[in-house]
Amino acid sequence: MKKIKKILPHPVLSIALVFIWLLLNNTFSAGHCVLGIILAVLIPRFTSDFWPEEVCAKQPLTFLKFSGIVAYDILMANIAVSRLILGPNKNLKPAFFNLPLDIEHPLGISLLASTISLTPGTVSCDLSEDKTYLIVHGLSINNADQIIDEIKTRYEKPLMEVFKPC
Amino acid sequence: MLEFALSVAIGMIVVALFLNVYRLIAGPGMPDRILALDTLYINSIVLLILFGLYLGSTLYFEAALLIAVMGFVGTVALSKYLLRGDIIE
Amino acid sequence: MFEITLAILVLVGAFFTLVGSIGIVKLPDFFTRLHGPTKATTLGAGAILIASSIFFFVSSGELSLHEILITFFLFITAPISAHLMAKSALHLKQKENGNETTP
User: Fold this and answer.
1) Contacts of A116 in chain C (CB under 8 A)
2) Do C11 and B8 touch (CB under 8 A)?
3) A166 confidence band (pLDDT: 50, 70, 90)
4) Pairwise CA distance, residues B33 & B74, whole Å
5) How many domains does chain B have?
6) Which residues in B lie closer than 8 A to residue C3 (C-beta atoms)?
7) Is B89 inside any structural domain?
């Protein structure tokens, strides 16, 4: 296990690099596979100073389920937001609210912020200095507490299970 | 059928591009202009893809990929500039 | 059948893209405008890219993977650029209000 760590400091990054290389060349031929693997070994080594903390993702199944929920929510969000945009402006109730964070892993926080931006009527605007809350802007807010609850149970919980501190 | 749908879609995207240009020129603040530029590049990617579909050619995807990468870098650089008054610290 | 599916995908994609741009012109202030492009335009672009991927797969028999890469890229970068723009807008707003606390 330690040997693998030495050759591949970030296994997930390496796998992603191979796939991106193959997608970029639009082929799955053997030559490009070999070239992609060479790049996937070399690039994380040379850039390892940029990635100081280790990422350990647990429970890939939870993550897959989470991605499914998010994909469905993106579709629903788009229909809701299109209706709001095309409707009269006075139906909008734009407002800021603070979302307290329980999740501590930096990658988890950034994934949560991205999910919030892509799903129902909310865009994450800023992270407080001490990483304890996100400032979120909503397009049509009737009850901020209800939306905070929904985000916490629907998105933050699975992410907390996946990104536990190593 | 498909060709008709493609012409209608290209027309809609062109209207969208004009709306973006309006916001780019009229936008009261700098963030509005950055947002307009961001939307403009995504819309131009869509226009390129539709044009590729129309001609049945895959040549345009490389250009679309380049616009996607460069557009993202441009948006980040402009936002950073507004945030700090400097791009590279 | 296949043509109709493609036509519907293309039209839906173009519609969502147009809605995003209408939002940019119609909505009253910057933070509400931000919602249009991050959601509607991204999904519209995704739908059209998927349509193109299916079209070239059926017409040439080879899987065209560039579209999938572009779709992934757009879906990853859209929230990040939205976040940065919102952050810079908040920063400017605070500067104008003379360093008050966050809204």
Assistant:
1) 79
2) yes
3) low
4) 13
5) 1
6) 1-2
7) no
Q: What's the pLDDT score for residue A150?
A: 79
What does the alpha-carbon distance between residue A107 and residue B77 come to, in Å, rounded to a whole number? Answer: 22
pTM: 0.84
Whether residues B69 and C80 touch (CB distance < 8 A) is answered with no
Distance from the Cα of A89 to chain C's closest Cα (Å) equals 7
Other C-beta atoms lying within 10 Å of the C-beta of residue C36: 27
Report the pLDDT value the prediction gives residue B15, as an integer from 0 to 100. 92
Domain range spanning residue B59? 2-84
Handedness of CA B78, A24, A63, A165 (dihedral sign): negative
Instruction: Say if residue B89's pLDDT is above 60.
Output: no
Tell me whether residue B67 is in a domain.
yes
Q: Does ipTM surpass 0.90 in this model?
A: no
Distance CA B32, CA B35 (A): 5
Task: Say which CATH number the domain at B63 has.
Answer: 1.10.287
The C-alpha of C7 sits at a distance from chain B's nearest C-alpha, in angstroms, of 5
Reported confidence tier of residue C103, pLDDT bands at 50, 70, 90: very low
Cβ atoms A18, A37 nearer than 8 A: yes
* Residue ranges of domains in chain A, CATH in brackets: 2-50 (no CATH), 60-162 (3.30.70)
